[in-house]
């Protein structure tokens, strides 16, 4: 039996990954702010889903949850995330601060708490849910792209920095997924949350270092990454 800590377990991909894990007999410590949603999921999934109400931007609260965990997780899936569009007319520093608090530090606080315990045990997996938005600066998404790029590159750097510890660092770069974050928008090549969750879990099981989907979006972003900055800026708006 594998024990997971999954942040953002109250909806979307985090909820679906929790459901998949419990369905195959694993245990999940599910973290999110919305107590009622976590409790409803716990009511359905039973004892193998243990809810922990926590705002991931609160370093003290993260520490307290880690101290209360009944067991050290095998795999921490740092999935909680948020985003909002930038204005085209005003610069919004607060949006950057909030987005980094959730998407970047909201993942790193868990690594800070769990890392020494994983090292002491000699194994542990950190999985960060970044985004294909990490690969290039997209219009109206400076804060979101930057926060996901920071998470993605930090995990890759940690993977090479801490090679000798026995820990694994996995980065996930989803394309569009039809979760509440998408607010009902019908975006190109969009996957359902169960499909995305299953793909991510399979990638983790297989030992992948980088999980990206769907493949046409991988091709597209791969091509976009090759474009020189000047050309990219001319054609994207
Ligand atoms: N949907 C997409 O197209 C897409 C694409 C690429 C990457 N992603 C990434 O995938 C991850 C999961 O998102 P999703 O698409 O499944 O969206 P979602 O359904 O909106 O899920 C977001 C989850 O994050 C939690 N969360 C947000 N702020 C939090 C905070 N301050 N403290 C604790 N939990 C917080 C939410 O729970 P509470 O509100 O209950 O706290 C919720 O469970 C995110 O990191 C997102 O950036 C999504």
Structure, briefly:
This protein has 237 residues and is an alpha/beta fold.
Strand content: 15-25%
Structural Rg: 17 Å
Major β-sheet annotation: 7 strands, parallel
Q: What's the helix count? A: 8
Distance between the termini: 48 Å
Written account of the structure:
The chain is an alpha/beta fold. It has a single domain (3-235), classed as Rossmann fold. The protein is 49% helix and 16% strand. The chain has 8 helices and 7 strands, in the order βαβαβαβαβαβαβαα. The chain has helices at residues 12-23, 35-45, 59-68, 93-121, 142-161, 193-206, 215-226, 229-235; strands spanning 3-7, 27-32, 49-53, 75-78, 124-129, 167-174, 210-213. Strands 3-2-1-4-5-6-7 form a 7-stranded parallel sheet, sandwiched between helices. β4 (75-78), α4 and β5 (124-129) form a beta-alpha-beta unit. α1 (12-23) packs across α6, α3 runs parallel beside α4 (93-121) and α4 packs parallel to α5 (142-161). The longest helix has 29 residues, at 93-121. The chain is globular. The relative contact order is 0.13. The model has no long low-confidence stretch (mean pLDDT 97). It binds NADP nicotinamide-adenine-dinucleotide phosphate. Residues 7-8, 10-14, 32-34, 37, 55-57, 79-83, 102, 106, 129, 131, 174, 176-177, 179-182 line the site of NADP nicotinamide-adenine-dinucleotide phosphate (NAP).
Give the arrangement of secondary structure elements:
Elements: E1 3-7, H1 12-23, E2 27-32, H2 35-45, E3 49-53, H3 59-68, E4 75-78, H4 93-121, E5 124-129, H5 142-161, E6 167-174, H6 193-206, E7 210-213, H7 215-226, H8 229-235
Parallel strand pairs: 1-2, 1-4, 2-3, 4-5, 5-6, 6-7
Helix pairs in contact: 1-6, 3-4, 4-5
The structure holds NADP nicotinamide-adenine-dinucleotide phosphate (NAP).
């Amino acid at each position: 039996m594998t024990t997971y800590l999954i942040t953002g377990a109250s909806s979307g991909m985090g909820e679906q990954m929790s459901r998949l894990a419990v369905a195959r007999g694993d245990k999940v410590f599910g973290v999110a702010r919305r107590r009622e949603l976590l409790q409803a999921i716990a009511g359905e999934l039973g004892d193998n889903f243990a809810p922990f109400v926590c705002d991931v931007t609160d370093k003290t609260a993260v520490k307290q949850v880690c101290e209360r965990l009944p067991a050290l997780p095998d795999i921490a899936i740092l999935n909680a995330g948020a985003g909002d569009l930038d204005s085209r007319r005003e610069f919004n520093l607060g949006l950057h601060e909030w987005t980094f608090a959730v998407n970047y530090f909201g993942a790193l606080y868990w690594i800070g708490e769990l890392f020494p315990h994983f090292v002491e045990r000699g194994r542990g997996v950190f999985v960060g849910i970044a985004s294909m938005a990490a690969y290039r600066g997209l219009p109206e998404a400076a804060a979101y792209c930057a926060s996901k790029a920071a998470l993605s590159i930090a995990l890759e750097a940690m993977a090479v920095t801490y090679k000798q510890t026995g820990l694994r660092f996995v980065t996930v770069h989803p394309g569009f997924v039809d979760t509440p974050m998408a607010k009902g928008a019908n975006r190109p090549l969009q996957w359902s949350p169960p499909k995305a969750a299953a793909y991510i879990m399979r990638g983790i099981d297989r030992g992948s270092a980088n999980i990206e989907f769907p493949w046409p979006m991988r091709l597209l972003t791969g091509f976009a990454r090759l474009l020189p900055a000047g050309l990219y800026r001319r054609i994207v708006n």
